[in-house]
Design goal:
The two termini are 18 Å apart. It contains four helices and six strands. The chain has helices at residues 3-18, 23-29, 50-62, 125-131, and strands at residues 30-37, 47-49, 70-79, 83-93, 100-112, 115-122. It is globular and about 40 Å long.
């Protein structure tokens, strides 16, 4: 278990909700070559790279929802030496339609030397846990 990785993970969640990652935060949180992979059912299906990619993901994700929409970490499912697995979601309303938005998925974030190297979304707890070598 790594409290340091969990702290980095939660700081990244706070930056997502602030809808901005400063240069200083990006330097602390993201390893060189950082990669973010989305589910095919996500708001966006791209793979994002580096600090600019993380910022682009935030823009792409939040442009379709209203200002009250929040990224939530519901539960930490596993916290290992080089990963954090969490049940997360986006809760709010559509920007134009006002329709309620409630998306949930399981996120896996991998770490090296205290920085996030890769993050990806999974539809099920089992898939996410298997991605880090644990049984679902």
């Amino acid at each position: 278990m790594s409290q340091a990785n969990l702290d980095v993970y939660m700081e990244a969640a706070d930056a997502i909700n602030a809808r901005h990652i400063s240069d200083d935060a990006a330097e602390r949180l993201l390893a060189p070559g950082f990669q973010m992979e989305n589910l095919s059912t996500a708001l966006t299906e791209k793979t994002y790279h580096g600090m600019d990619g993380a910022r682009e993901w935030i823009r792409d994700t939040f442009e379709v929802v209203d200002e009250s929409t929040r990224y939530e970490v519901d539960e930490i499912l596993a916290n290992g030496k080089d990963f954090v697995v969490a049940r997360v979601g986006m809760i709010g309303h559509g920007a134009r339609s006002g329709v309620p938005v409630a998306m949930r998925w399981v996120n896996v974030t991998w770490f090296q030397d205290g920085k996030m190297t890769r993050t990806g979304g999974y539809l099920t707890r089992r898939e996410a846990l298997e991605a880090v070598g644990l049984e679902g």
